[in-house]
Amino acid sequence: MRALLLSNPKATATSGRVREVITSALAADLKLDIVHTTHRGHAIELGTQATQDGYDYVVVVGGDGTVNEVVNGMLAGGPGAHVPTLAVVPGGSANVFARTLGLSNNPIDATGQILEALQEGRSRSIGLGNVDGRWFVFAAGFGFDAEVIHKVELRRGRGKKATPHLYARTAVKNFYRSGLRKEPPMALHVPGQDPIDGLYLAVVSNTTPWTYFNSRPVQVSPEARFETALDVFALKRTRTPSTLRTLWQITRVDPQPRGKKVRSFHDLGAFTITSTEPIELQVDGDFAGLREIAHFTGVPNALRVIA
Asked: Can you point out the beta strands (E) in 123-249?
């Protein structure tokens, strides 16, 4: 079987030595070609080429941002049997997608799990989310969470390391400073229902959890699954006590997000979120620009993965 190993050398959780061990292990079972990303967007180009070149597998060693780029490249021509099967070795700071697939957060252990699945011929088909032509594998966000991610990316550009505590500190500061919460500009439009306006946060989930805080899963849509369409968790303007209550709810072992300001939907095939002003969008934890409208679609059986 031909496989393309696509590695992000800047991934935060893998050293050169670890990547060598992973490569050697995979090369024992696969006819392996190896490429390294050199700039943002490069993985999209490499994913597109992998599909065009007819690889059986694409193995990504990197974080969720690299995975998102690769998937968008692989699916540039749409889903189908011609698209390689994806395997993910976690190499980033959160590794939400790999962990949601049941893989270890340790890259060496995850490689062992992938090899075992390959030897047993195990793979699965999963649904994906799409927002205006951009694919996402586990979640997208419009509003407050995307604003936080944008600010974190700006700080990373100044040399800060992406850690759970950096995200938490940025979120707390932004909660009290953000104009989005003070004058919520967003509305959710679900076919057949009245629009829900006055929203400052909307998280669209393709699976659960939404993210992790260290080892603790944060689940805003506990029923979201790769086998269903998309779930939405949205918040209207909230004060500090109700926000803390919601935060407690989504980090429980048995998460039950609810409240007067919470709006939740399960298994939506298509919907739209609008804003009265340009606001941040994020996909799979990466800032994706400013916009006033976003059309979301859940696409079943869009990609085969090793898990």
From this structure: 124-131, 134-136, 139-143, 186-189, 196-205, 211-213, 216-218, 230-236
Residues 245 and 158 in one domain: yes
Secondary structure of residue 217 in the 3-state scheme: strand
Q: 0.85 cut: is pTM over it?
A: yes
Single-letter residue type at 65: G
Tell me the residue type at 279: I
Exposure letters 264-298 (e unless 16+ CB within 10 A, then b):
ebeebeebebbbeeebbbbbbbbbbeebeebebbb
Q: What is the pLDDT tens value at each position of the chain, 307 positions in all?
A: 999 999 988 776 678 888 899 999 999 999 999 999 999 999 999 999 999 999 999 999 999 999 999 999 999 999 999 999 999 999 988 899 999 999 999 999 999 999 999 999 999 999 999 999 999 999 999 998 999 899 888 887 776 776 777 777 787 777 766 767 678 999 999 999 999 999 999 999 999 999 988 888 999 999 999 999 999 999 997 666 667 667 657 877 777 787 778 999 999 999 999 999 999 999 999 999 999 999 999 999 999 999 8
How far apart, in whole angstroms, are the C-alpha atoms of residue 40 and residue 126? 26
Structural domain range at position 15: 2-122
Q: Please count the structural domains in the chain.
A: 2
Encoded tokens for 127: 């649904």
3-class DSSP state for residue 108? helix
Same domain membership, residue 175 and residue 116: no
DSSP characters over 240-282: HHHHHHHHHHHTSSS-----TTEEEEEEESEEEEEEEEEEEEE
* CA atoms of 263 and 283, how far apart (whole Å): 20
Residue 51 to residue 301: CA distance in whole angstroms: 17
